[in-house]
Amino acid sequence: MARISKTGMSITRRPQSPKYQAQIVRDEVRAGLVPVGAEHVRRRERITANWQAMHQPGFEAAIGVGPVEVYLRIRMANLNAPLGQYGNYTVGDLWRWLDKTGTPPHMIYPLDPRGVLRFEIGGVVLYRKWVRHPGFPPRHWSDMINAELKDDFDKAVNNAMRRGFRKALAGG
User: Per-residue confidence of the chain (172 residues) as pLDDT tens digits?
Assistant: First the structure.
Protein backbone atom coordinates (compact mmCIF):
# COMPACT_ATOMS: atom_id res chain seq x y z
CA MET A 1 0.00 0.00 0.00
CA ALA A 2 1.43 3.39 -0.94
CA ARG A 3 0.57 6.64 0.79
CA ILE A 4 1.46 10.07 -0.31
CA SER A 5 1.76 12.75 2.34
CA LYS A 6 2.97 16.34 2.36
CA THR A 7 6.48 15.24 3.35
CA GLY A 8 6.85 12.41 0.86
CA MET A 9 5.76 8.90 0.06
CA SER A 10 5.88 5.79 2.26
CA ILE A 11 5.34 2.20 1.20
CA THR A 12 4.13 -0.31 3.76
CA ARG A 13 3.49 -3.99 3.49
CA ARG A 14 0.98 -5.95 5.53
CA PRO A 15 2.67 -8.78 7.45
CA GLN A 16 1.63 -12.37 6.84
CA SER A 17 -0.99 -13.73 9.22
CA PRO A 18 0.39 -15.41 12.36
CA LYS A 19 -1.22 -18.72 11.29
CA TYR A 20 0.62 -18.59 7.98
CA GLN A 21 3.89 -17.72 9.71
CA ALA A 22 3.47 -20.60 12.17
CA GLN A 23 2.80 -22.97 9.25
CA ILE A 24 6.02 -21.85 7.56
CA VAL A 25 7.97 -22.61 10.76
CA ARG A 26 6.27 -26.02 11.18
CA ASP A 27 7.00 -26.97 7.56
CA GLU A 28 10.64 -26.01 8.01
CA VAL A 29 10.93 -28.07 11.22
CA ARG A 30 9.32 -31.08 9.53
CA ALA A 31 11.78 -30.82 6.63
CA GLY A 32 14.71 -30.36 9.03
CA LEU A 33 13.88 -33.59 10.86
CA VAL A 34 13.84 -35.79 7.74
CA PRO A 35 17.63 -36.49 7.86
CA VAL A 36 17.48 -37.27 11.60
CA GLY A 37 14.60 -39.71 11.00
CA ALA A 38 16.53 -41.33 8.16
CA GLU A 39 19.54 -41.80 10.47
CA HIS A 40 17.35 -43.44 13.13
CA VAL A 41 16.04 -45.87 10.50
CA ARG A 42 19.56 -46.55 9.12
CA ARG A 43 20.92 -47.40 12.56
CA ARG A 44 18.10 -49.83 13.32
CA GLU A 45 18.48 -51.45 9.90
CA ARG A 46 22.22 -51.86 10.52
CA ILE A 47 21.39 -53.88 13.66
CA THR A 48 19.08 -56.23 11.74
CA ALA A 49 21.15 -56.41 8.52
CA ASN A 50 22.24 -60.04 9.04
CA TRP A 51 18.85 -61.34 10.22
CA GLN A 52 16.90 -63.75 8.03
CA ALA A 53 14.80 -61.79 5.51
CA MET A 54 11.48 -62.95 6.98
CA HIS A 55 12.58 -61.81 10.46
CA GLN A 56 13.85 -58.35 9.49
CA PRO A 57 11.77 -55.44 10.73
CA GLY A 58 11.05 -52.72 8.18
CA PHE A 59 11.48 -49.38 9.93
CA GLU A 60 10.08 -46.02 8.90
CA ALA A 61 10.21 -42.56 10.46
CA ALA A 62 7.04 -40.58 11.20
CA ILE A 63 7.60 -36.87 11.80
CA GLY A 64 4.93 -34.65 13.30
CA VAL A 65 4.91 -30.97 14.11
CA GLY A 66 1.91 -29.48 15.83
CA PRO A 67 1.21 -26.22 17.62
CA VAL A 68 2.72 -27.51 20.88
CA GLU A 69 4.78 -30.59 20.02
CA VAL A 70 7.43 -31.93 17.71
CA TYR A 71 7.91 -35.67 17.45
CA LEU A 72 9.89 -38.24 15.57
CA ARG A 73 8.52 -41.76 15.89
CA ILE A 74 10.14 -44.84 14.45
CA ARG A 75 7.56 -47.40 13.41
CA MET A 76 7.80 -50.93 12.11
CA ALA A 77 6.12 -51.27 8.74
CA ASN A 78 5.83 -55.06 9.09
CA LEU A 79 5.02 -55.15 12.81
CA ASN A 80 2.45 -57.95 12.44
CA ALA A 81 4.30 -60.02 9.84
CA PRO A 82 4.46 -63.66 11.02
CA LEU A 83 7.76 -65.32 11.84
CA GLY A 84 6.74 -68.24 9.68
CA GLN A 85 7.09 -71.71 11.14
CA TYR A 86 7.99 -70.42 14.61
CA GLY A 87 4.50 -70.34 16.08
CA ASN A 88 2.08 -67.45 16.34
CA TYR A 89 4.78 -64.84 16.81
CA THR A 90 5.38 -61.73 14.75
CA VAL A 91 8.35 -59.63 13.71
CA GLY A 92 7.18 -57.06 16.26
CA ASP A 93 7.35 -59.70 19.02
CA LEU A 94 10.90 -60.62 18.00
CA TRP A 95 12.08 -56.98 18.03
CA ARG A 96 10.38 -56.34 21.39
CA TRP A 97 12.03 -59.40 22.96
CA LEU A 98 15.48 -58.52 21.68
CA ASP A 99 15.25 -54.77 22.26
CA LYS A 100 12.95 -54.16 25.23
CA THR A 101 12.01 -57.17 27.34
CA GLY A 102 14.45 -60.03 26.79
CA THR A 103 13.13 -63.51 27.52
CA PRO A 104 13.10 -65.62 30.66
CA PRO A 105 14.57 -69.14 30.62
CA HIS A 106 12.22 -71.43 28.67
CA MET A 107 11.92 -74.82 27.03
CA ILE A 108 12.20 -75.31 23.27
CA TYR A 109 10.39 -78.25 21.70
CA PRO A 110 10.29 -79.44 18.07
CA LEU A 111 7.38 -78.16 15.98
CA ASP A 112 6.33 -81.72 15.25
CA PRO A 113 5.63 -83.47 18.58
CA ARG A 114 7.12 -86.69 17.17
CA GLY A 115 10.24 -84.91 15.85
CA VAL A 116 13.56 -83.94 17.37
CA LEU A 117 15.66 -80.80 17.47
CA ARG A 118 18.89 -80.86 15.45
CA PHE A 119 21.72 -78.43 16.04
CA GLU A 120 25.47 -78.27 15.83
CA ILE A 121 27.91 -77.33 18.59
CA GLY A 122 31.63 -77.24 17.87
CA GLY A 123 31.25 -79.33 14.71
CA VAL A 124 29.27 -82.05 16.52
CA VAL A 125 25.68 -82.62 15.40
CA LEU A 126 23.29 -83.16 18.31
CA TYR A 127 19.69 -84.38 18.40
CA ARG A 128 17.42 -83.65 21.34
CA LYS A 129 13.72 -84.03 22.15
CA TRP A 130 13.86 -80.64 23.89
CA VAL A 131 16.38 -78.06 25.10
CA ARG A 132 16.41 -75.62 27.98
CA HIS A 133 17.01 -72.11 26.61
CA PRO A 134 18.74 -69.93 29.23
CA GLY A 135 16.87 -66.77 28.16
CA PHE A 136 18.60 -63.47 27.46
CA PRO A 137 18.50 -59.90 28.69
CA PRO A 138 17.15 -57.08 26.49
CA ARG A 139 19.70 -55.28 24.31
CA HIS A 140 18.10 -51.76 24.56
CA TRP A 141 19.15 -50.81 21.02
CA SER A 142 16.37 -48.23 20.62
CA ASP A 143 17.29 -46.49 23.86
CA MET A 144 20.96 -46.29 22.81
CA ILE A 145 20.13 -44.96 19.34
CA ASN A 146 17.70 -42.39 20.75
CA ALA A 147 20.28 -41.19 23.28
CA GLU A 148 23.02 -40.97 20.61
CA LEU A 149 20.82 -38.97 18.23
CA LYS A 150 19.09 -36.71 20.78
CA ASP A 151 21.55 -33.85 20.19
CA ASP A 152 21.06 -34.19 16.42
CA PHE A 153 17.28 -34.00 16.94
CA ASP A 154 17.58 -30.89 19.13
CA LYS A 155 19.98 -29.16 16.70
CA ALA A 156 17.77 -29.97 13.72
CA VAL A 157 14.68 -28.54 15.46
CA ASN A 158 16.48 -25.38 16.61
CA ASN A 159 18.10 -24.73 13.22
CA ALA A 160 14.85 -25.39 11.37
CA MET A 161 12.92 -23.06 13.68
CA ARG A 162 15.49 -20.33 13.06
CA ARG A 163 15.21 -20.86 9.28
CA GLY A 164 11.43 -20.92 9.51
CA PHE A 165 11.25 -17.67 11.48
CA ARG A 166 13.58 -16.00 8.96
CA LYS A 167 11.40 -17.19 6.08
CA ALA A 168 8.18 -16.15 7.83
CA LEU A 169 9.52 -12.65 8.56
CA ALA A 170 10.79 -12.31 5.00
CA GLY A 171 7.29 -13.01 3.73
CA GLY A 172 7.40 -16.75 3.08
Answer: 555 666 776 666 677 788 888 999 999 999 999 999 999 999 999 999 999 998 999 999 999 998 889 999 999 999 999 988 777 899 999 999 999 999 999 999 998 889 999 989 999 999 999 999 999 999 999 999 999 999 999 999 999 999 999 998 887 6
Indicate the pTM of the whole model: 0.80
- From CA 79, how far away is CA 57, in angstroms rounded? 7
Give the residues across from 125 on adjacent strands: 120
- Kindly state the greatest CA–CA separation across the chain: 104
Report the length, in residues, of the chain: 172
Angle of the 141-170 helix axis to the 18-47 helix axis, nearest 10: 150
